[in-house]
Amino acid sequence: MENKTTVRELSELWGIDDETIKRAIRILFPELMEIGKTTYLTEFHVAVIKEKVVENKRIDLLFKESVTVGADDDLAIIRGLQAAQRKIEKLDAQIAEMKPAHEFGKFLIDARDGWLSMMEAAAVLEPELKMGRNTFLAWLRGLKFLNDRNIPYRDFIECGYFMVTETVTPVGPKTVTKLSNKGMQAILKKFHSSVLVEK
After folding, report:
1. Total domain count for the chain?
2. Which of 29, 121, 127, 199 has the fewest CB atoms within 10 Å distance of its CB?
3. Residue range(s) defining the domain that contains residue 188
């Protein structure tokens, strides 16, 4: 259980009047002050109040010196915790940024033959490219990776970006286009270079 201190105990410990401490509490932690009830302060509250009291110009310099020694240690701990929290938030943001790349790599590893259908590729690249399947296909047509029927041009098939197969379905033959890891990298490179040009 955390130790708690009252205003009166702080007043006696620091040698200053109750009202100075209460004023600091009203400014910093107004929710702690209830009329007719004893105010209990945690070590954290005490450390923050010390900082406020030390800044109070009405307190004599001797008191400032005596309080500053203890306050410096407490404030160093508080500032260290705040710095650690900022570091954690920054790392969380970096992890969130890396997640699409991680998912992309995992998807490629999981792919049985190393090729992804255009629907799978669009789903994997969506967080990075910020476009859905239809927009993705239209964008590839605009870059002349695909023709008007969403079939890749021969040059891109021969260099290993795409593979086109034909499967038999109950309604007849169907052309299936797949994208390789090499093709994914080329598309991402093209996307990032186009973003840089726009900027």
Report:
1. 2
2. 199
3. 113-198
